Amino acid sequence: MKETFGEFIRRHRTAKGLTLTQLAASLDLDSANLSKIENGIREFDVKRIKKLSIALNINQKLVREEYFSHVIAKKMYENNCSENVMIMAEQKIQYYKTIKK
Question: Residue 42, Cβ neighbours under 10 Å: how many?
Answer without folding.
Answer: 15
